[in-house]
Amino acid sequence: MIRLDKFLCEMEIGTRSQVKELIKKGNVLVDGEVIKKADYKFEENVAKVFVNGKEISYQKYYYYMLHKPAGVVSATVDNHDKTVMELLKNAPGRDMFPVGRLDKDTEGLLLITNDGELSHNLLSPKKHIDKTYLVKTKKEITDSMISSLEKGVDIGEDHLTLPAKVKLIKEQVIELTITEGKFHQVKRMLKAVDNEVVYLKRLSMGSLTLDENLAPGEYRLLTKKEIEELK
Which three-class secondary structure string do you get for 90-149? Predict the structure, then answer.
């Protein structure tokens, strides 16, 4: 059950005072009945709500795929740099945040949502969610480097990194799949094999793959199928 004024605010119909005025004027119908009480409660996933003749469907959670460009930070607020949330400032949804972080200079897939449970499940170290990156390196990728990455390398933690999957694209380009999310992990892994990352782009996270039609800085809502597969 939800209060009518809270429902309308969450659906971004207006501020609390604005939606109360709409209700007071009789512009809001719930299941065909004009409701003039802001504290009227109803089942948000069952009732049909109309405002000025337009049906308002309840949506609690929002899921966006963002192609993060380089130069913005994966944060909700930052005092110095532009954030990924500024790229979605006109997107419907409340209390949204990026799921995990990509370095400022890293591009690629970033999930933006207000679903805390999904975020926790995707980021939980116990879940070992696959994350695949396109990695361009300063030096040629050797067989020895690939072997080390696939076995696990020392990046200064208590344990070696978990075994990675490496797909050689060309001499200085690989696709690297890891199941952890340690700070600067990909860069530290390449440094551990005496190489250096010069370009990094996340291609996928779990079942979610970056939409090739999204240019850096662009975003779209996830499809129902993508949401179901993530969960």
Answer: CCCCCCCEECCCCCCCCEEEEEEECCHHHHHHHHCCCCCCCEEEEEEECCCCCHHHHHHH
Catalytic site positions: 103
Number of domains observed in the structure of the chain: 3
* pLDDT 10s digits, 54-79: 999 888 899 999 999 999 999 999 98
Q: Strands, DSSP E only, in 142-195?
A: 165-170, 173-178
Q: How far apart are CA 90 and CA 27, in angstroms?
A: 25
pLDDT in tens, 152-201: 999 999 999 999 999 999 999 999 999 998 999 999 999 999 999 999 99
Residue 123 and residue 75 share a domain: yes
The residue to which tokens 């119909």 are assigned: 13
Report which DSSP code applies to 179. S
Looking at the structure, do residues 103 and 216 belong to the same domain, yes or no? yes
The more confident residue out of 9 and 68 is: 68
Q: What is the pLDDT of residue 58?
A: 85
**Final residue before a domain boundary, out of 34, 56, 78:** 56
Q: Residue 222's pLDDT is what?
A: 97
Helix (H), strand (E) at residue 2: strand 2-3
Which residue range forms the structural domain that includes residue 229? 61-127+211-231
Token pair 């999310």: residue: 181
Phi, psi dihedral angles at 21 (to 5 degrees): -70, -40
